[in-house]
Structure formats: C-alpha cells, structure tokens
C-alpha cells in the first residue's frame, strides 16, 4: 500500500451506498483507509429481515473494489447494554425513545472510535449527511448541504472530543450525486435502497418485535376529557403521541367521521386517550421540558435568544427560545404550537446551520387544550 499523505482513517462500512462512497472519497483524497463493519445485533438476525450477514457481504465487496483493508468487529454486547436496554426501559415507561441518537453517541462514536484509535487511526469517518468544522477554537456540528438528508439531529449528542476525530465526507454532497459517484466507480451496492428501521436491528414488524420483550397489557381507549370508552389497546408501550394507524376505532355514535389520534397515555391507569382530527388542540404544544441535556460547545446556549428546534427528525425548523436552562433540564418555548410533541424523543436546538445539541423531551408538557 502506498504511503498515506493525509493519515489513517477508519470508515464505518455498513454495506450501504453512503458509507461506501465516504470510503471511496477518502481513498481518493490520499488517506490510508480501513473499512470496518460493525455487527451490533445478534437477536433474530435471520434472512427474513435485513440481516447483518448480507450487510457484511456487501461491505466486504465494496472494500475489495475500492482496494482498502477491511475488518469486522462485534459490538453486540455494548449495544445490548448501552442502547437496547435503555430503549426497552423508555418504552416500558410509556415514552418513545430514538435509538439512533443513543446508538450514535454510545456505539458509532464511542466503541467504534475507541477501536479505531487502537488501530492507530487519526480519524474515523461515516456516511452520515452532516458537516464538522473548527470555529473559534471549538468543533461545531453543521447541517448537511442536502437538507432532505441532513442527519445532524441524530448526531446532536456528540462532544468536542468525538467531533475532533470525525470526518463526514458526504456533508457537502446531495444524495443523487452520491449514487452517481458510486455507479461511476463500479461499486456493487450503488443501487441499494436506503435502510430504515431501528438502528442496527433493521426493518421488521415493530409491534411484533417489541412484544417479544414487553408483554401486552390491554386496556381501554377513551375520548380525551371524558370517560367514554371507544375501543381497546394492546398495551400503552405500543403507541406514541400523534399515532393514527392501528387504533381500530370506527363507527362511534354521535361523533364526526374524522380519524382518531393518540393524545395521551395514562400509565398508572393503563388508559389510552384519543382525539379526533389532526388539528385537535390537544395534539399541539407550545412548551416543553427537556432533560438529559447534551451541548456540543463547552458554552451552553443563551436563554431568551431566538433559536430553531426540531422535536422529531422529519420536521421543519421551528423558531423557539430557551426560557430556563439548568444543568439537568431546560424549558423550550416555541413561537407557534408544535404537533405531537412526544416524550422520549429528542428536541434538538440549532443556530442557523449549526447544531448546538439538545435533550430528551419529558412528560411535563403543556398542550394547548
């Protein structure tokens, strides 16, 4: 192998096209590149779902075409302890966690980073759509150029040390260009569809999957603000605020013909409360409290400044202010009500294109109803 002009970088190869192109670009830029495949899930890893076995085959094929070293490492124990156990605890508590956020901070940018440094790497890289830069002596996480693919939301818990060791080669590219680069380079996975589903677990019937770990506990579905029973649920664990599908409510006398949405979960009484209509005021909140805060800069954001925030990944930036900021939690007030603010999800704060960090939304919400 020719001597590197840029240093050694270990790229997380998932088998997908994004990480493949990230590795290719770094090789072209003169880095000594090692491809590393992470196996983080061993439960029911069969061909019925998106198996890691096929991912490994695809990742190895990419490394062969690019001409880089390749290895596989098993972080399943770390994933089970640090990510999946917390994932189940949150669901059992009635919240809706985002495992991708925890997976990034605990596995991809901790276990993976530690392993890469042990291999003598100067940096790690992934196929995430985001950017990192150094500004006024600190490292910043920026949105990707392709706003439709930006993944800074999932990366908001990274710290200064992690960002200082990370490269995001796709940060300035659009997805269509990434696929074109992969095709022109003859990468075997250039047309592979994007993965969805739970981080490292893959695509599978979610309620069935969750039911293997959390037993069903059926209960009543009631109209919010009344004692009227309109159906039964399988267990509050399986539902999230704003959910419409799977409620199996219909034909209720003296009610308008409009879809029903989950508005509240009473864990103590095992009652699911629903409302009719997407625009019902009980589904909107202009205020939230976030805990377990994580700020990228050594200086936390200011209170009463106008920022932007997301309370879920697929959401436009919403103008907001941080009204109160403590070491463990903060209050966020939005300029306009936000739909289906969900406990357990992350609220992520931005200043223009710079991701400042965020926290976990708690149950202490004040809906406008």
Topology:
Elements: E1 8-12, H1 17-28, E2 32-39, H2 52-66, E3 69-74, H3 76-92, H4 99-118, E4 123-125, E5 130-135, E6 138-143, H5 160-164, E7 166-167, H6 175-184, H7 206-211, E8 219-223, E9 229-233, E10 260-266, E11 271-276, E12 284-295, E13 306-310, E14 318-325, E15 329-339, E16 346-351, E17 354-361
Parallel strand pairs: 1-2, 1-4, 2-3, 4-7, 8-11
Antiparallel strand pairs: 5-6, 6-17, 8-9, 10-11, 12-15, 12-17, 13-14, 13-16, 14-15, 16-17
Helix pairs in contact: 1-2, 1-6, 3-4
Give an overview in words:
The chain is an alpha/beta fold and 369 residues long. It has helices at residues 17-28, 52-66, 76-92, 99-118, 160-164, 175-184, 206-211; strands at 8-12, 32-39, 69-74, 123-125, 130-135, 138-143, 166-167, 219-223, 229-233, 260-266, 271-276, 284-295, 306-310, 318-325, 329-339, 346-351, 354-361. It has a six-stranded antiparallel barrel.
Q: In the CATH hierarchy, what is the superfamily of the largest domain?
A: HUPs
Q: Enumerate the spans where pLDDT stays under 50 for 5 or more consecutive residues.
A: 365-369
Q: What is the annotated CATH architecture of the largest domain? A: 3-Layer(aba) Sandwich
Total of helices = 7
Largest sheet: 6 strands, antiparallel, barrel
H/E topology pattern: EHEHEHHEEEHEHHEEEEEEEEEE
**Coarse structural class:** alpha/beta
How many whole angstroms does the radius of gyration measure?
22 Å
């Amino acid at each position: 192998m020719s001597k590197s002009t840029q240093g050694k970088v270990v790229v997380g190869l998932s088998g997908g096209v994004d990480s493949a192109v990230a590795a290719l670009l770094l090789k072209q830029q003169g880095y000594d590149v090692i491809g590393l495949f992470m196996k983080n899930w061993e439960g029911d890893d069969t061909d019925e779902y998106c198996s890691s076995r096929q991912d490994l085959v695809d990742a190895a094929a990419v490394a062969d075409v690019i001409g880089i070293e390749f290895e596989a490492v098993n972080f399943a124990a770390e994933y089970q302890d640090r990510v999946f156990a917390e994932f189940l605890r949150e669901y059992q508590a009635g919240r809706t966690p985002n495992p991708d956020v925890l997976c990034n901070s605990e596995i991809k940018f901790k276990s993976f980073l530690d392993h890469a440094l042990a291999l003598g790497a100067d940096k790690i890289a992934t196929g995430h759509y985001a950017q990192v830069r150094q500004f006024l002596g600190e490292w910043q996480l920026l949105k990707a150029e392709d706003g439709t693919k930006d993944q800074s939301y999932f990366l908001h818990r990274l710290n200064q040390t992690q960002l200082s060791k990370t490269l995001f080669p796709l940060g300035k590219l659009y997805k269509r260009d990434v696929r074109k680069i992969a095709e022109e380079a003859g990468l075997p996975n250039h047309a592979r569809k994007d993965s969805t589903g739970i981080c490292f677990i893959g695509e599978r019937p979610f309620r069935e999957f969750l039911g293997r770990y959390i037993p069903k506990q059926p209960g009543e579905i009631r109209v919010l603000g009344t004692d009227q029973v309109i159906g039964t649920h399988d267990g509050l664990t399986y539902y999230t605020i704003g959910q419409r599908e799977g409620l199996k409510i219909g034909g209720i006398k003296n009610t308008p013909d409009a879809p029903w949405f989950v508005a509240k979960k009473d864990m103590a009484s095992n009652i699911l409360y629903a409302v009719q209509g997407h625009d019902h005021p009980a589904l909107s909140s202009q205020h939230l409290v976030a805990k377990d805060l994580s700020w990228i800069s050594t200086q936390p954001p200011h209170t009463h400044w106008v920022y932007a925030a997301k309370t879920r990944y697929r959401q436009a930036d919403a103008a907001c202010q941080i009204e109160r900021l403590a070491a463990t939690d903060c209050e966020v007030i939005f300029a306009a009500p936000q739909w289906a603010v969900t406990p357990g999800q992350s609220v992520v704060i931005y200043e223009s294109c710079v991701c400042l960090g965020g926290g976990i939304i708690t149950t202490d919400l004040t809906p406008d109803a």
